[in-house]
Amino acid sequence: MKYLALLRTLFVILLLPAVMSYDRYHYHKNISSLDGAWQAVRGNKTISMIVNDGYCMISTYNLEGRQFFNTRGGNITVENDRIILKVQFNSADSTEVGKIQKYSYSIQDDILNTDIEDEKTAYKRADAGKGELAGNWRITRRKQGDKMVDAPLRARRTLKLLTGSRFQWAAINVETGEFSGTGGGTYTFAQGKYTENIEFFSRDNSRVGASLSFDDTIENGNWIHTGLSSTGNPIYEVWSRFKE
Question: Which three-class secondary structure string do you get for the chain?
Answer without folding.
Answer: CHHHHHHHHHHHHHHHHHHHHHHHHHHHHHHHHCCEEEEEEECCEEEEEEEECCEEEEEEEECCCCEEEEEEEEEEEEECCEEEEEEEEECCCHHHCCCEEEEEEEEECCEEEECCCCCCEEEEEEECCCCCCCEEEEEEEEEECCEEEECCCCCEEEEEEECCCEEEEEEEECCCCCEEEEEEEEEEEECCEEEEEEEEECCCHHHCCCEEEEEEEEECCEEEEEEECCCCCEEEEEEEECCC
